[in-house]
Write a structure and sequence with these properties.
heterodimer, A: 287 residues, mainly alpha, MetI-like fold, 2 domains, 14 helices, B: 292 residues, 13 helices, 77% helix
């Protein structure tokens, strides 16, 4: 080995390594600091909130803004609405979509109909939200469903359905056919084999899909803004938006609500780490 | 098994898939396709309900629509460029030898999971010109922040909403590109090493071509999202000051739900749909060209 290039590499290495970690640390700071700072606002007395230069660490914490938001104001109700809408729409989308996913994974239909259907189902997810929000508002108004949680459950079910079908179809394809065929030879019907053999094998996938649906419904804003404007129906994001755009913002209460909207998501995010790439390429998380 | 039962099983097997798919198709027809048809219908109606082409002819003379279109493009192109470059840089960094890669990855991905409304609140607070942490920090480094009014000045307002978008969605670009990088096999790199390629040559002639499908997919997904952006702009600037950050989705929203002109809103939403479709068709063609 010649000395020249070798020396070059050895000399260059430690510098590059330091630079690498410094860059990563800067990126991490830019990621975490904004979230941290907003969280501190929710725990600060008003004097500390408006302090210049900003107080990052030294302030006496208070829970008054949480009490203000969730006891004196209606954010507790919005939180409940968000939970109900997210849970119910996820349940409906899974119930309806899993069967379609199974069929599209296992059956070849004449004239490539199965592939065409799968693509059509995915394409319904690609419309910009505002395109369907305008007519859906008018339709829901005709049905007298505006300002009800039911309207959002219906809309989010349809919204999550294409995602469920594609995600679960992938998981079903991974289950070897032989397993259910063996069960069918043993006397199970097709659906019996599905329930007894296939479903237990895709449970982790089903859970990941459910978590993605929960995140999407929990985060969704535009449809919620259009369809729910009353306290008994509006979700947390709409409630937060309502405070922001009014004159004279209660920064503490708003940050407290934002923190509460954020916490379940962070927990969920940890659960689905492993499935992120697959889920995200299919358009999860974002509306 | 008797013949009859066998026959029954077979005809079952034939209709079963249709039975399983039918509910999904029904829901999507009712909640995606029917609204679209409904929207076409109202786009050809005047507010009084009479048939008209007015909603479409008005598009060309409506200054607000044309400037919303321009804002949308400025927003999408700037955010896409920055997100792509930062995301690619981070992906390359994390694809090299790094200790604790999965921890770095998990932490850097946080913003993309957050509700966009929360991201809006975060940046509305950070960029507040009186007590926001951005100006506060700059001040403590001795920077004069008097002219940095962020969301209150037309030019900086656009920068503000782009910054928030970059903050939330660079992690997404980074994640998909990192997955793409990790799927590239070792052999081409070993060959490049044997050939004595420089790092730049290896990147240009090995990494980039092999990463191209992942790049196209991430650009496609981001472009479609950027063109319809709504949530965090609604929180941070509400389209203001004036109309400085009013994008197509915001203008359509206001036309429909503030001015109750649903027909015109529907007509504009078809322009947005058309633009989105044309651009994504372009990306998909590029993807196909690679496969062939």
């Amino acid at each position: 080995m010649t000395l020249g290039p070798g020396v070059f590499v050895v000399k260059k290495h430690p510098m590059r390594k330091t630079l690498k970690y410094v860059t990563l640390f800067v990126a991490l700071l830019a990621t975490v600091a904004p979230i941290y700072w907003m969280s501190t606002i929710s725990f600060k007395h008003e004097v500390d909130q408006f302090a210049v230069p900003p107080k990052w660490f030294s302030f006496s914490p208070t829970l008054e803004h949480y009490a203000d938001a969730f006891v004196s104001r209606s954010f507790g109700q919005y939180l409940l609405n968000s939970f109900l809408v997210a849970a119910m729409s996820t349940l409906c989308a899974l119930l309806i979509g899993t069967f379609a996913a199974y069929a599209l994974a296992r059956f070849r239909l004449p004239r490539n109909l199965d592939r065409k259907l799968a693509l059509w189902i995915l394409s319904t997810r690609m419309f910009p939200a505002i395109v369907t929000a305008v007519p859906l508002f008018l339709i829901m108004r005709d049905l007298r469903l505006v300002n009800t949680r039911v309207s959002l459950i219906i809309v989010y079910t349809a919204f999550n359905l294409p995602f469920v079908v594609w995600m679960m179809r992938g998981f079903f394809v991974e289950v070897p056919r032989d397993l259910e065929e063996a069960a069918m030879v043993d006397g199970d019907s097709r659906l019996g084999a599905f329930r007894r053999v296939v479903l237990p094998l895709v449970t982790p996938g089903l859970a990941a899909t459910a978590v993605f649906c929960l995140i999407v419904s929990w985060n969704e804003f535009l449809f919620a803004l259009v369809l729910t404007q009353t306290d008994d129906a509006m979700t947390l994001p709409v409630g937060i938006a309502g405070r922001v755009t009014q004159y004279g913002i209660k920064w503490g209460a708003m940050s407290a609500a934002a923190v509460v909207a954020m916490v379940p998501i962070l927990a969920f995010a940890l659960v689905v780490q492993r499935y992120l790439v697959r889920g995200l390429s299919l358009g999860a998380v974002k509306g | 098994m008797t013949n009859e039962r066998l026959h029954n099983e077979h005809s079952h097997e034939r209709i079963l898939p249709y039975l399983l798919i039918a509910p999904t198709v029904a829901v999507l027809l009712a909640l995606s396709i029917y609204p679209l048809i409904y929207s076409i219908k109202i786009s050809f109606q005047s507010p009084s309900g009479a048939a008209t082409l007015q909603n479409f002819t008005r598009l060309f003379s409506d200054q607000f629509f044309l400037s919303a279109l321009a804002h949308t493009f400025v927003y999408a192109v700037s955010a896409l460029t920055i997100e792509f470059l930062l995301g690619l840089g981070l992906a390359l960094l994390l694809n090299s030898q790094i200790r604790g890669r999965s921890v770095w990855r998990a932490l850097l991905l946080l913003p993309m999971m957050l509700p966009p409304v929360v991201v809006g609140v975060v940046w509305r607070l950070l960029l507040n010109s009186n007590f926001g942490a951005v100006n506060g920090t700059l001040k403590s480094f001795g920077v004069n922040t008097e002219s940095l009014t962020w969301t209150a000045s037309p030019k900086l307002a656009m920068a503000s909403v782009i910054i928030a978008d970059v903050w939330q969605w660079t992690p997404f670009v980074f994640l998909i590109l990192l997955a793409g990088l990790q799927a590239i096999p070792q052999e081409p790199y070993e060959a490049a090493l044997v050939d004595g390629s420089t790092a730049w040559q290896t990147f240009r002639h090995v990494t980039l071509p092999l990463l191209k499908p992942a790049i196209l997919i991430v650009l496609l997904l981001r472009t479609m999202d950027l063109l319809r952006v709504f949530d965090h702009i609604f929180i941070i600037t509400e389209g203001g000051p004036g109309f400085a950050t009013e994008t197509l989705s915001l203008y359509i929203y206001r036309t429909a739900f503030r001015f109750s002109n649903f027909g015109y809103a529907a007509a504009m939403s078809f322009v947005l749909l058309l633009i989105t479709n044309v651009i994504s068709a372009g990306y998909i063609r590029m993807l196909r060209a690679r496969e062939a």
